[in-house]
Specification:
Helices cover 57% and strands 0% of the residues. With 100 residues, the protein is mostly helical.
């Protein structure tokens, strides 16, 4: 069964203006960040679904590959800061990846 699509045009977004106080909290926060039209698009995609966003934007595999590619033998501290990992974790990633 297809998901019913509710376009931004079918909502009276002009009625809202910049006052999003009538929206539920999560949608109000989104509307303030990305605008009402994009918020309605997010609503259309995910309404009724419980979503948990990972704390990291990029996948572990992608990040590990980037760390190994950027490692020059002396920049463990810099990589740890850049990727928000401990130096010990950076060393473990380098060792583990080099064994493969």
């Amino acid at each position: 069964m297809p998901i019913e699509f509710i376009s931004a045009k079918s909502w009276d977004v002009n009625l809202l203006g910049d006052d999003f106080s009538g929206l539920n909290e999560v949608y109000r926060e989104l509307a303030n960040e990305i605008g009402i039209e994009k918020t309605i698009a997010v609503f259309n995609l995910f309404h009724g679904t419980q979503i948990s966003f990972p704390t990291r934007l990029f996948s572990k595999e992608y990040t590990h590959k980037a760390i190994v590619n950027e490692y020059d033998g002396k920049n463990v501290s810099l990589l740890a800061q850049k990727y928000n990992y401990s130096e010990r974790t950076i060393w473990r990633i380098i060792k583990t990846t080099n064994k493969k």
